[in-house]
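Box 3.1 — From sequence to structure: Phospholipid-transporting ATPase
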Amino acid sequence: MGSLLSQLGLECGRKEVKEEERHLRANDREFNLSYEYADNAIKTSKYNIFTFLPLNLFEQFQRLANAYFLFLLCLQLIPEISSLSWFTTVVPLVLVLSMTMAKDGSDDINRHRCDRQVNNRKVEVLIDGELRSEKWMDVQVGDIIKLENNQFVTADLLLLSSSEPLNLIYIETAELDGETNLKVKQALTVTGELEDCIEKLANFNGEVRCEPPNNRLDKFTGTLTLKGEMYSLDNERVLLRGCTLRNTQWCFGLVVFGGPDTKLMQNCGKTTLKRTSIDRLMNVLVLSIFGFLAVMCLILAVGNGIWEYQEGSKFAAFLPKQEGVNAPFSAFLTFWSYVIILNTVVPISLYVSVEIIRLGNSFYIDWDRKMYYPKSDTPAEARTTTLNEELGQIKYIFSDKTGTLTQNIMTFNKCSINGKSYGEAWQKVDFSWNNLADPKFCFHDHSLVEVVREGNPEVQAFFRLLALCHTVMPEEKKEGELYYQAQSPDEGALVTAARNFGFVFRSRTPESITVVEMGELVTYELLAVLDFNNVRKRMSVIVRSPEGKLTLYCKGADTIIFERLNPSCSKLKEVTTEHLNEYAGDGLRTLALAYKDIDPKYMEEWKLRHHEASTAMDEREEKLDALYEEIEKGLLLLGSTAVEDKLQDGVPQTIEQLSKADIKIWVLTGDKQETAENIGYSCNMLREEMTEVFIVSAFALEKDMEMELLRTACMCQTVICCRVTPLQKAQVVELVKKYKQAITLAIGDGANDVSMIKAAHIGVGISGQEGMQAVLSSDFSFAQFRYLQRLLLVHGRWSYLRMCKFLRYFFYKNFTFTFVHFWYGFFCGFSAQTVYDEWFITLYNLVYTALPVLALSLFDQDVNDRWSFQYPKLYAPGQLNQYFSKRAFVYTVLHSGYSSLVLFFIPWAAMYDTVRDDGKDIVDYQSFALLAQTCLLIAVSIQLGLDTHYWTSVNQFFLWGSLCVYFAVIFTMYSNGMFLIFTSSFPFIGTARNSLNQPNVWLTMLLTSILCVLPVVAYRFLRILLWPTVNDKVRYKVRQDKVLPPAPRRVQARRASTRRSGYAFSHAQGYGDLVTSGRFLRWTPKSRPALFSQTDSPLAQTQPQFYRTINEGGEPPLSP
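Predicted structure (token representation):
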């Protein structure tokens, strides 16, 4: 029974025991099954065939509107209070539930399909001494499996052995963190000896004790016990599910975590549901409507009690009272009867219609060819369909800099060496003398090539440093084709520059770096890598040359390097600082380069202390930092580099347009103040006339300072936050959300922007050079920052306008419909009789008025996209909630009240004591009901036409089609045939043909329509004449001009400034530990023919060098 319940997804009474430590033994399923660890099957679906109906209905009835209509249905089953047939509530409720159920079921079927596809993948598992092909779902903890190149990692594995030297493997982690650059893992030496020997692997019985399942992707703690020896395990020994094996023929791994226990599945937690401001307002309004409904029902119930007390006895002869029913009890029953009758004031179809509208407007974003980026074949994508209208209400934009405003494609433009600046000339350098040069690299200064080839020692030392001081990994997929895998584009650009100037980085081992220096192969012994981190802002390597000379090479942020220079470099430092200022004026990213010769005796003593610190269990990082600080002093300055990270196309124009729309743009970056400041000038965010600059440290985000920070920032025209961590980015967004009560948008392209993207009301991811993690966490995505203005000023504004029009009209037509019932109560003795035919009540929202308002909400636009760009001020009403708010809702209710008075009393007066042309009486309830409902439908249709600014054939078809359907339905339902077949359901026999052939009926419809529309037309005429809005003025100009405005031109903006720029590495913690440990080593070809021998190609002659992180296939970087 328990297993059956488990299969049905209805496990109960079983208390889950929290796992504190995982203990497993290789090749021993019986031992491992005793711990009841989860198998490798995954389940992301919500339902199965047995639970779908009850669970889905339970979820749907948690919505207030659905629960309310279920309550109404229960009331209608009570004969004493029900004055409406059951189908008036059942039909709309079932339709709404069915549509939602169909959508949820379709989504879950797709999830089931994906689960089956993943669970049924095949992998080779070592069972009973032989490899067998098994499904992923059948893999158990403790199994040894074999993976081959390009296969997905089946579960979280302890790497045992591989086909590569030193038991290395290469993996791609794009599905985990969005990064496409390859990472390296290495097995323990003791397990690497197993190799691919099946007999050895089958006899392997190591025991693993490790941490319990958790979601920390970057951390793993455990031990392996084998033959009485214990070995430490860390994250470098583990392969996580979701990774892909690359450039590795085969590897073997031991399953540690399976299925739901894997770190990938542990990270699949629920994402915080983002709701729009209109959603929150609608919830408040629906609750208010409930209160308003109760008040109306109470008024009518009190009226019924008074009427029964004063007039009820007069009708007792032909309306006898039931026993025990007095006036108070009659009023109580009448209250619930009117709750049923007036239920349309709470629109059940509102939420379904809203979802359809949002879905349609999301498709417009996906289909927009003007937001498609052909160079990377990347279309815009609405990754969520619930936030479209909020795109039209953005007040604050928080933007990353690198890769978002800039391209994150680095070009080596200028450099300063020994006090002389290079790169100012315009002639392109010819590198044909260097057979190993990259033909895509471009530099403009022949003099630098000349001094390099002349053997200038300072210049050669400069490029030698660039060729040695890095963590780049070379890859030679084909004979003679050399590619660099770099952690950041900056490092790749610098190493490529050294390569073209004659210092070619060729290969590395854990103990050496091989460089081709001016055609001569030189191997340096690598003694230590002093790795980069966000605190040090620099990295160093210590190498021994073939002559035995020990040298420390260091590169880093100029302010950090200058603090550690030997005093003898003061004059060179001043000249280099001037050059840095010049580079800053061009918005270039800078690094300072320095070196230091080291005494061999000191080095031996320092290495001993370094070994002790690197093996310490406590305060390891602090001890290493102290040693690094000690040896990185007294440096000799070589010069500086200047790398350009170009702005994306259209960034200044986009920022200018958004600023005209009164959208505040804050740039949040981890770069130095000077670098971000110069990008601010390039983007037109900062201008030379802005003389007052406030510099605030990160501690301003502390609780006692955050309000002062916010007040100061909001008084500024431009805000650029520098040196902020990912967490601080999110804190800034939360600060504005909390105190400014404004809609925020965050846009970024890297993993460091994810927290900011999730914190904002709307997150936008740019699919650029830093992987896909920002896109995966975003609500909307595209390839270029410039598309943001179209997303907001066109799609966002239209979506907001359409949604507001929909809500105003929806509430108008429903309140008007309901108020007519309310007025009728005073003329029917408060008896809870309906004023309309029951079938009209059923079909009013579902058929007669559904499609026209959907057409309005999907196609309407006040002006086209060109005019939206021409007048960004059109965006302002959305920021101020002018189109739909509590005030607008009150106006809509008052408008409905007036219309309902006209729609009830004009037909009532017209029908009172009226006769037909032939003298027969026309005054009966059914004729009045038909006239009232027809006037209502015509009036709300005319109102819809007045609200429509942009007519399409679809709008016309739906509007006129709905009216035609109405008349066709009433003539059919009120026919003799329907009455004879379903006598009790269709009592209005002959009403349509007897009433609609009278001229006074049609004149009454005309009069009510005119009286309903006249105040609206008069108000709009006077408003446009006396108090025109921006929207009115632009629409008037559109009608006058009748010519589209010109398409916006891109203007190349340049500026000259002496503002200082600085740059500290853009990448994160480096590969220093990996470099020195040997976990990256690859076999390299013994013969090395010349690379890129064809130097007369068009590519070599005309294309500048662009560097980006290598992709999964290891193809060469492409110039955009």
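Summary of the box: The two ends are 62 Å apart (CA to CA).
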